[in-house]
Amino acid sequence: MLIARAPVRISLAGGGTDLPAYFNQFGGVVINTTIDKYFYVFLRVYDGDSLQIASSDYSTFYRQNPRLKQDESDAPIEGTLRLPRTVLNHFGVARGLSMFLASEIPPGTGLGSSSTVTVAIIKALSTAIGEPLSKGDLAELACQIEIEQMAMPIGKQDQYAAAFGGLNEISFTESGCTVKPLDVSWETRQQLQDNLMLFFTGHSRNSADILREQTQASRKSSSSTVEALHRVKAMVEDVRACFVSGDLTAFGELLHENWLQKKRFAPGISNALIDESYETARQLGAVGGKITGAGGGGFLMLYCPRASQPAVTDALETKGLLRMDYKFDSTGARVLMNAGLSIQSAMLRPTVARNGAENRRSAGSPARPAVRIGNTLAGEVAS
């Protein structure tokens, strides 16, 4: 058996500027941090011809019928458990493998869950096949599969956060990405962790519709959306300065301004419950906050001094929201256990096994943009 995991993230600044429709024109930058809520992938090799996938989050199961001719084309996969099936298809795994997926948070809650699943699956499969990837290659392959192969209208920060872990500033351009760990004191990091509250609104949502509208608005250079994204991007420098100086009250005020701008990105980002809960929290001492992810549901994130947290918690839980405790994560995607599991060539599609690893990696794949960690190429950094 092989077990891998990857952490989800909370976006602290610049969210929305990581969409290709925006950063290909203007450049994007975000600050995010991963937290200790994980998506897990369990792989088991067994003596059989089928391929099996089970997901506890969606209470569903998929079995690939070994008697049917396997599709070796690049046509998009549809139907049950589309995402893990697409990743398995990319690696050419066709038989003799059982995959189980589980998570510590509900899907569709604005913490980058779908991309975290993708990163965790790639981490597990690349290890099992004997082709371990650097963190940068891991993140970029996840982006390629989701954005290019699956045509998902999403950004790139979630994949990079899950692969690298930690508190980072991530810049995006058409030519590549740069990951820069933030130089923040232990005291400031601890205060940030203590004062950032997460409340589950009780509503999961599919972010695709909101992100699709935002993408279309960016491509059409809609003045309202693009101006709001420009302002959100400009705030990243201010947020970085707050973290370096330790002025987290100012960070909370920037979060509030960020939320006001974010609601201009696309319809459906907020709703009556979110607005009412946010205003109640502000009245009781929260400095600022926003909905995580694309919006429409998921988690309400608040920056709130500890003295005000009991009153805020009681008031929001009365409205039906639930507070989630967490700690920051610094490790990123990793293999927790590998009891000698290895995916052999007999488990791969015939053409994949015949062509070998190099052809499998390059087949149908465009040139990958450069990825840098600070001034170092990501491909030079060991996973």
Characterization of this structure:
Strands 1, 2, 3, 4, 5, 6, 7, 12, 13 and 14 form a ten-stranded mixed β-sheet that branches. The protein is globular and about 60 Å long. The chain folds into two domains: 2-182 and 330-380, Ribosomal Protein S5, domain 2, CATH 3.30.230; 186-324, GHMP kinase, C-terminal domain (Alpha-Beta Plaits, 2-Layer Sandwich), CATH 3.30.70.890. α3 (113-129) crosses α5. With 383 residues, it is of the alpha+beta class. The relative contact order is 0.19. The protein has twelve helices and 14 strands. It has helices at residues 20-26, 82-91, 113-129, 135-149, 157-164, 186-195, 208-219, 223-245, 248-262, 272-283, 309-318, 350-362; strands at residues 2-13, 28-45, 51-55, 60-64, 97-103, 167-173, 176-181, 196-200, 288-291, 299-303, 322-324, 334-338, 370-373, 376-377.
Please trace the helix and strand order, writing H or E for each element: EHEEEHEHHHEEHEHHHHEEHEEHEE
**The CATH topology of the largest domain:** Ribosomal Protein S5, domain 2
| Global outline | globular
How far apart lie the N and C ends? Answer: 20 Å
Structural class: alpha+beta
Major beta-sheet overview: 10 strands, mixed
Query: Uncertain segments of ≥5 residues (pLDDT<50)?
Result: 359-367, 375-383
Top CATH class of the largest domain: Alpha Beta
Known CATH architecture of the largest domain: 2-Layer Sandwich
% residues in beta strands: 15-25%
How many domains, as an integer? Answer: 2
Give the strand tally. Answer: 14
Rg from alpha-carbon coordinates: 21 Å
Count helical runs.
Answer: 12
Helicity level, as a percent range?
Answer: 25-40%
In round numbers, the mean pLDDT is: 86
